[in-house]
Structure formats: structure tokens, C-alpha cells
């Protein structure tokens, strides 16, 4: 699936085709031999249009962050293609890849771990400007102060260190660093999950304002479905290295077709007590299988409440059931 049949190629910024990211499992201390593979991302395809936010949701360990890193080539994919502005990033190396990196940035999950404690805020935000030869000296300092202002921080904080800031402020510094090189695409890797609930809304609003201001395109990775609904245009649901369902935000939340999507959405609290009382919660039995040994057939067959015999034998194709609503399920569209 590429999705290019229905969509003009010009408005697609990122196109991922059959992306796989496997990590080797090795044994032995001196002579290491490979005894298996962890299939973190196992053959996924989707596209992201210019200026939109694609939400990527799923349980911890399902391969969401690995997908984001493989798109940016922080991990070199095992197989598949990643097209960005019509260029296949998988085939780029060295200087060519470095030049493309200016257009793609990442906001990391943990603002405490992603900032170097020995560097001042000015150096953290200014480093990408030097790496890409964009600005030096006075120009660089002015640009750093401008970026701090853009993300809602005092521009005179440039000589302070990360430990002097709260979690929310540190995440703003991380966002300023991502914006430094004027990217067109940002992977937001659970940027609010390490923050207090009171701060989360501020960061989400900031990301939305920046998207409008600079025409940014986001891949927004999260496991909080209500946050994803708020910020995303379309949502992809991931489970054990595969995308199970992908649709427009409202379509997915109001008409989920895959049993896994239904189970996830049934767990999202609704503020109306009347609806909440009538609603049926779908409790999934068992644990997520290991990505080192995924089940035969559909990855979800071991926990699916609607499982059929074919689900345990053959993997369902990822098909468009109409209106760009993609599902990988034998009960739908086959």
C-alpha cells in the first residue's frame, strides 16, 4: 500500500513503503552468534501529507518510536523505503543524508535525558546551527534568543544549564533545538508522556501554534488516545510491529473497524457519565506476544475476541475499505 493512487503525489511529504526494522538477538561473550531477531517494525506502509499531523498510537513496545527513528534514518532500516520530498532516504549516505537531515528533526520523549547537562541552553539550541553551517557568532546568538522566544521562554536564559529548568521548560528547549534548522517535518516521540498533566496541554498547544506558524508536518507518537485525537488529522493504530488500522481521526474514533482499535478506544474515558455507564469495556486477555516470536497469521490473533481460523494461519492484507480507511483484518474488506 502506498496510498498514491488516491492522492496527488505533490502534497505527500513522507511516504513509507514496507518498512522493516529488525534487531539481532545474539548469544556468547567472545564469539557472538545470532540466535534470532526482534521484529520491532515488520513491513508497514503509510504516507503523511504536507502540513498534517499523523498520530501513531499503540501499547508500549509495539514499535512506534522505532518507526520514527527509522524514518529519520537514526536507525538504518532492515528493508523497505522511506521517501521524503521524492527522495529515497534509505539510499542516501554521508553528506547527502546530512543535508536532508536539516529538513527532518525529532522531539524526544524524555526532556531530562535528551539535553546534555554539561551544555548551556544557548549551546544546545545553537549546536544544529553550527553543524549545518547556518549561523555563527552574533548571528547564532540572536537566532538562539529568537527561538527561545518562539517557544515561550525568556531569551536571556541562554547561559543557563538544563538542571535549572522544569520538565516542561526543558521540553520547550528540545522543541527550540528541533526548530533551529527550519525543518519541514518533525517526529514528536511521545513529547508529553514524561510531563505533568498540567503542563501537557501547554506543550500540545505550543506544537499546534508552531505548526500553523511554520507550516510543519508532524508524526505524533503517543499512547494517550485523547491527546492524539486532539492534535492529529489522521491516526494509525500499531500493534506488535504492524499497523492494524489507519483512518481520518473522526472516522477512526467513531467507526473503528479493527478489534484492537475497538479495544483501545473502549478504554478511553468519556466525560459524559450517561454514555460512560452504557458503554462496554473490551478487556483483552493475555499479554502481547514477544516481537522475537510473533504469532503465525495475524499478529493480534492470540488476543483477539473475534478471532477466526484463517486469522491463525494467514496474515491479512492492509486494504482500503473506502474513504482512505485502511484495515488489516480478515473480518473487514476481505
Question: Explain this structure to me?
Answer:
The chain is 30% helix and 23% strand. It is of the alpha/beta class and 334 residues long. The strands form 2 sheets. An 8-stranded mixed β-sheet has the order 6-7-8-3-9-10-12-11, sandwiched between helices. A 4-stranded antiparallel β-sheet has the order 2-1-4-5. Helix 3 (121-131) packs across helix 4, helix 3 runs parallel beside helix 5 and helix 5 packs parallel to helix 6 (197-214). It is globular, with a radius of gyration of 21 Å. 37% of the residues are buried.
Summary of the model, kept short:
Helix content is 30%, strand content 23%. It has helices at residues 64-71, 94-101, 121-131, 137-150, 167-179, 197-214, 225-231, 249-254, 259-266, 273-278, and strands spanning 12-27, 33-49, 53-57, 79-84, 87-88, 104-107, 185-189, 217-222, 234-239, 242-248, 319-320, 326-327.
Write the layout of secondary structure elements.
Blueprint: E1 12-27, E2 33-49, E3 53-57, H1 64-71, E4 79-84, E5 87-88, H2 94-101, E6 104-107, H3 121-131, H4 137-150, H5 167-179, E7 185-189, H6 197-214, E8 217-222, H7 225-231, E9 234-239, E10 242-248, H8 249-254, H9 259-266, H10 273-278, E11 319-320, E12 326-327
Parallel strand pairs: 3-8, 3-9, 6-7, 7-8
Antiparallel strand pairs: 1-2, 1-4, 4-5, 9-10, 10-12, 11-12
Helix pairs in contact: 3-4, 3-5, 4-5, 5-6
- Derived structural class: alpha/beta
The oligomerization state is single chain
Kindly report the average pLDDT value. Answer: 89
Terminal residue distance: 15 Å
Using DSSP, what is the number of strands?
12
Task: Describe the global form.
Answer: globular
Order of helices and strands: EEEHEEHEHHHEHEHEEHHHEE
Q: Strand order across the biggest sheet?
A: 6-7-8-3-9-10-12-11
- Uncertain regions: pLDDT < 50 for 5+ in a row? 1-7
Q: Into which percentage range does the β-strand content fall?
A: 15-25%
Amino acid at each position: 500500500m502506498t496510498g498514491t493512487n488516491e492522492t496527488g503525489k505533490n502534497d505527500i511529504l513522507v511516504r513509507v513503503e514496507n518498512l522493516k526494522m529488525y534487531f539481532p538477538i545474539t548469544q556468547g561473550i567472545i564469539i557472538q552468534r545470532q540466535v534470532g531477531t526482534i521484529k520491532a517494525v515488520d513491513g508497514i506502509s503509510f504516507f503523511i501529507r504536507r502540513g498534517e499531523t499523523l498520530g501513531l498510537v499503540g501499547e508500549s513496545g509495539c514499535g512506534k518510536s522505532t518507526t520514527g527513528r527509522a524514518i529519520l534514518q537514526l536507525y538504518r532500516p532492515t528493508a523497505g523505503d522511506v521517501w521524503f520530498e521524492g527522495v529515497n532516504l534509505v539510499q542516501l549516505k554521508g553528506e547527502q543524508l546530512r543535508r536532508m537531515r536539516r529538513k527532518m528533526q525529532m522531539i524526544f520523549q524524555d526532556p531530562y535525558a535528551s539535553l546534555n547537562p554539561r551544555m548551556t541552553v544557548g549551546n544546545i539550541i545553537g549546536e544544529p546551527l553550527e553543524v549545518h553551517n547556518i549561523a555563527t557568532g552574533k548571528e547564532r546568538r540572536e537566532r538562539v534568543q529568537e527561538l527561545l522566544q518562539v517557544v515561550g521562554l525568556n531569551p536571556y536564559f541562554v547561559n543557563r544549564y538544563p538542571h535549572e529548568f522544569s520538565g516542561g521548560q526543558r521540553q520547550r528547549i528540545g522543541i527550540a533545538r528541533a526548530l533551529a534548522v527550519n525543518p519541514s517535518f518533525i517526529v514528536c516521540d511521545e513529547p508529553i508522556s514524561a510531563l505533568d498533566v498540567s503542563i501537557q496541554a501547554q506543550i500540545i498547544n505550543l506544537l499546534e501554534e508552531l505548526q500553523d506558524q511554520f507550516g510543519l508536518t508532524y508524526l505524533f507518537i503517543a499512547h494517550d488516545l485523547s491527546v492524539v485525537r486532539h492534535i492529529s488529522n489522521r491516526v494509525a493504530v500499531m500493534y506488535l510491529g504492524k499497523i492494524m488500522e489507519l483512518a481520518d481521526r473522526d472516522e477512526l474514533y467513531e467507526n473503528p473497524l479493527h478489534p484492537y482499535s475497538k479495544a483501545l478506544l473502549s478504554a478511553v474515558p468519556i466525560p459524559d457519565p450517561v454514555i460512560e455507564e452504557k458503554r462496554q469495556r473490551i478487556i483483552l486477555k493475555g499479554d502481547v506476544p514477544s516481537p522475537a516470536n510473533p504469532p503465525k497469521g495475524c499478529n493480534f490473533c492470540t488476543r483477539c475476541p473475534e478471532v477466526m481460523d484463517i486469522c491463525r494461519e494467514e496474515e491479512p492484507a492492509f486494504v482500503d475499505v473506502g474513504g482512505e480507511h485502511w484495515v488489516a483484518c480478515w473480518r473487514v474488506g476481505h
